Structures are given as C-alpha cells and as structure tokens.
Known about the structure:
Endonuclease, Chain A, 49% helix, alpha+beta, 7-stranded mixed β-sheet
Amino acid sequence: MFQELLQKIGLSLNEARVYEALLHLGEVNVNKISIKSKVHRRNVYDSLNKLIEKGLASETFVKGEKVFKAIDPERLKEIIKEQESALDSFLPDMRKLYTSVESDTEAYLFRGVNGFKNYLQLILEQKQTVYFIGAKAFWLDPRLQHYLRHFNKERKKRGITFMHLFDYEVKKQKPEILTLVGKPYKFLPKEYSSATAVDIFGNYVVTFVGVKPGELYEEPLQFVLKSKLLADGYRKFFQFMWDHCKET
C-alpha cells in the first residue's frame, strides 16, 4: 500500500516492504517480518539495519529473542526535512555550475506528467508574467492536483501573473479554471479553436500538441524553445490577439 510512497522519499524496495510489514505487525521477529514482507530473511536483516540507521525502526530483546518494531511514521516528515536541508546547502553551487554552461538558445522536449511538472518549474524559475495562447484548462487534470497546490502557492509568492487567451470551448466545458487562475483572461473566437496551445514566459516558448479542455493526454508532450528573440516575438503576437479579442 505504501511502498511506492516510501521509495519516493528514499527507501529501497526491500526497506519499504520491511517497514510496511513492521507497521502491520508491531513488535516482531525476523521470521515473521520475512513472511509478511516477502523479503528473504538475509535481506530483511540488511533492510532492518538501514531502517534503524534512518530512525525508522528499533530493536530490543524479549525473552532472549531479538525483535523489531517500527518507529512512528511522523519520523518520515523529519527525513524529508533533512533531505531538503541537505539539498539547500548544495543548491547554490549546483546552480552556479548549471548557469555557467546554460545556453542562450535551446530546443528540447518534456514528456509525461513529470515533464509537465518540469515545465511548471520553469515558470517558477523565470518569475515573469506568463502569456497563454489557446489555453485549454489542462491544469485541471487529476494527476496534477497535488503538485498544483504547491505550484500556485509558489507562483503567487513570487509575484508571477497570468494572462490567458482561452479556447472558446473552455468557457462552457471547464469554467472552474477561471476561478483557479483568476483574471485577466479573454477567449479566442470559436472559429480559431485548435488542438494546440502556446505558453510564453521569460525566454521560453512552450508548445503543447494534442490537448483538449480539462485534461492532458496519457503521455503529454511539450516542445520547449529557449530564445529571448523568439519569446519577445511571440509576446507581440499575443498582444495583437489580446487587443483584438473582446472582453469577457
């Protein structure tokens, strides 16, 4: 049940299985842990030692037998905080390395839901107004809801504003997006709807293909172009369309 989550915060597969078994069994010996977790007895010992090092398990002797039990799962929050603290201490140097070799002009792809999250992270990094052409409200995709809460909080904190030119269909099919993103926004005329969308922010132009109101495709794809000259040009295109669309 919890194995995938536990692996995301740094536990190995065996460690996740053993820890979850401990949560179910309470204070227990290695044999029972092995049976419940379906991890070989020899590997259970290795996983238990690592869990003890991480403060997620403890050992004691009961009637001469060594038994183990899980530490309160609240400890997992502390592990995440420790990981964030460690990362924060190295991020400045990592950023220096990254920016020292970063190109002024690039073209690449983002794939999948995690790729979409990378696109959202770019928005936060640029800290500039985002211009949306043919917006489809695909931020309402259920797979993004947990991450978007964090994203919206951060983008407001960083003073990032949005200007949306939505496709006509969004007004009736996904009106809830209007409350989520807030004004200003306008709608393109009905005859100009398409299966594409373009976002412009900072030095980036991101193009989405094969999108529809309110959801991403199973494997979303974004074409990312980095060029100040290109982004400035697209902003002029946006302004022309904005000026010629009616107020909602």
